[in-house]
Amino acid sequence: xxxxxxxxxxxxxxxxxxxxxxxxxxxxxxxxxxxxxxxxxxxxxxxxxxxxxxxxxxxxxxxxxxxxxxxxxxxxxxxxxxxxxxxxxxxxxxxxxxxxxxxxxxxxxxxxxxxxxxxxxxxxxxxxxxxxxxxxxxxxxxxxxxxxxxxxxxxxxxxxxxxxxxxxxxxxxxxxxxxxxxxxxxxxxxxxxxxxxxxxxxxxxxxxxxxxxxxxxxxxxxxxxxxxxxxxxxxxxxxxxxxxxxxxxxxxxxxxxxxxxxxxxxxxxxxxxxxxxxxxxxxxxxxxxxxxxxxxxxxxxxxxxxxxxxxxxxxxxxxxxxxxxxxxxxxxxxxxxxxxxxxxx
Amino acid sequence: xxxxxxxxxxxxxxxxxxxxxxxxxxxxxxxxxxxxxxxxxxxxxxxxxxxxxxxxxxxxxxxxxxxxxxxxxxxxxxxxxxxxxxxxxxxxxxxxxxxxxxxxxxxxxxxxxxxxxxxxxxxxxxxxxxxxxxxxxxxxxxxxxxxxxxxxxxxxxxxxxxxxxxxxxxxxxxxxxxxxxxxxxxxxxxxxxxxxxxxxxxxxxxxxxxxxxxxxxxxxxxxxxxxxxxxxxxxxxxxxxxxxxxxxxxxxxxxxxxxxxxxxxxxxxxxxxxxxxxxxxxxxxxxxxxxxxxxxxxxxxxxxxxxxxxxxxxxxxxxxxxxxxxxxxxxxxxxxxxxxxxxxx
DNA sequence: TATATTATTGCAACCGATTGTAATTTTTAA
DNA sequence: TTAAAAATTACAATCGGTTGCAATAATATA
Lengths: 345, 345
Prior knowledge:
Two copies of one chain form a homodimer. In chain A, the strands form three sheets. Chain A has a six-stranded parallel sheet with strand order 2-1-3-4-5-11, with helices on both faces. Chain A has a four-stranded parallel sheet with strand order 7-6-8-9. Chain A has a two-stranded antiparallel sheet with strand order 10-12. By secondary structure, chain A is of the alpha/beta class. The first copy, chain A, has three domains: 8-51, 434 Repressor (Amino-terminal Domain); 63-164 and 299-329, Response regulator (Rossmann fold, 3-Layer(aba) Sandwich), CATH 3.40.50.2300; 166-296 and 332-338, 3-Layer(aba) Sandwich (Rossmann fold). In chain A, helix 8 (166-179) runs parallel beside helix 9 (195-210). Chain A contains 13 helices and twelve strands. In chain A, strand 1, helix 5 (76-91) and strand 2 (95-100) form a beta-alpha-beta unit. Chain A is elongated and about 85 Å long. Chain A has helices at residues 8-15, 19-26, 34-47, 53-60, 76-91, 105-117, 138-142, 166-179, 195-210, 227-239, 253-265, 284-287, 299-315; strands at 65-70, 95-100, 122-125, 147-150, 160-164, 185-189, 220-222, 247-250, 275-277, 294-296, 325-328, 331-333. Chain A starts with 7 loop residues before the first helix and ends in a 12-residue tail after the last strand. Chains A and B meet through helix 4, helix 5, strand 2, helix 6 and helix 11 of A and helix 4, helix 5, strand 2, helix 6 and helix 11 of B. Chain B binds a DNA duplex through helix 2 and helix 4. Chains A, B: One of its GO terms (molecular function) is DNA-binding transcription factor activity.
């Protein structure tokens, strides 16, 4: 039942030419006569030939595979990025192996090892929130396998990074809240060892500074952004203590949506009591009541950008200057969760 | 700079034994003396040896890779399933290649071809919504490569399928609305050539029947569940025509959330005017106002189940009875979007 | 001590494609 | 018509493990 696999030797035998010629013919090598190529392709199609990637990889020491390690797949942002990467990379003849770290350094290390053993030609990484040690990427560097970090990056390794301007985004979000009359703006974000959160925080602080508002430690919370964490943060630290801020800037839309729900559950009005701004422009930010003001995060564009850089590098002559810092632009998307002043006042 | 790759021949030479013994030693072959094994492992670690999967795959004609094709990654349900699959499959020493069809048959076909050429040991598929032709799976069948369909399945190929009881789920959702006093229940779902939507529709119809409510064609809409489609469906067909239903059962939570937002935007009260039930128990169903009653879809469990079946098959003696139909249980999760009667009435 | 068992290890072919170099054929130039 | 140049094609080694079978070493049995 199991059909025998067709090899270039089978094709060669049937065509009375050498396997070499078949191999070159299939690769459209210029040295092969066009008529011969046609005969090869025709027979290959007829016999249902498929190239054996392992033999090819083994010989060429290249896999045409790119590994991706991300914290999680389940956000609109992440799947947009992946979508962008996949499209570009596929067109260039590469495959993707995708894995999730589930925000854990240990899983990220395991994934990296797997990618390494699978001999990916390049690695694309968005770091897990608690990754502090980067030694799992050393093997790639040693073998000159390019790594690109995006979104959650690090300066600890000087690879290429692709990010948005998180500082600006944090600034815009905060300034918007200030413009809307907020003076006590709570900022809830992730592990500030991560660039994205650190930079947003810097933007937040700068906006406060520029508007003569003092930064207050008690208006800054760093947690894992889970529903439970948001609940604890808002209920225990804010609501029960009657330290009601008048603005809330949360570092992602899911967490912002949790926050919104929790605050409403506590009887607060959004945006009248507390104006809320999220981050990412995930679907979820548009279906809450009120919909959430957020930062647009151009995932697709980011993905395509990443792919292009890698492909140019891999298909080019591998020039080693693969450590540029690419910063994409972002915008603020204003929705009802933060509008407290008429624009035509 | 580029470090030379260490092979079993390097190890063999250093240990003064044959490559054969090294190979067997690394595989923990019983014929190899335990002391020899230790020497091999120690040296391997010291020299930074890594197995070359291509050479191994080439020789063994097996890749230890499992392919996954899904419509999209960006739903809590899908990423739960993948998470479940990945965990189990990783433990058993397999890798995953994941790709998205973006709900398009053409992309699904391309993905399938890629998987085939990458010689995955098995394929896991949730069909794109418009896949009507299944010939892209034929090559797998011919080569006895197992395929498991989950969620979006087909009976056109007799492979193993893993699904939830969509009929029951549809029934429960509908009956719940009826219990809440709804009599004109609009059902919006996807392409009913797909089992999931067809079965939910059957459940919907049966529930109506059991409660002496006639099925009305005008209370059934099949579309692509996008925001635009929901908008068109609700605005054009329902609201403008003043055919106000009193219940709405939407086949996934994102679409239900869109619907909720659109209806509220049109001035309708949920659940007083229209009670709403979604499907999947995605995060989004919990943050709308009101939160949406939905069907719990145990993604993780489904993923682990799929992985177990495959691994048992692959690691076992490949007994060919790989065409069972597995149906997982589901529940209704009641939230405010559908509660119109006090439970203690 | 001789012989039979059992435990270890190694030889050599093989998986299927790729590629430097050489050989052959075809085309062009003299 | 013949030598030189260009176009095609083929030989054979190579990539790095894997595995059937033979060979050798160690241990047990008579």
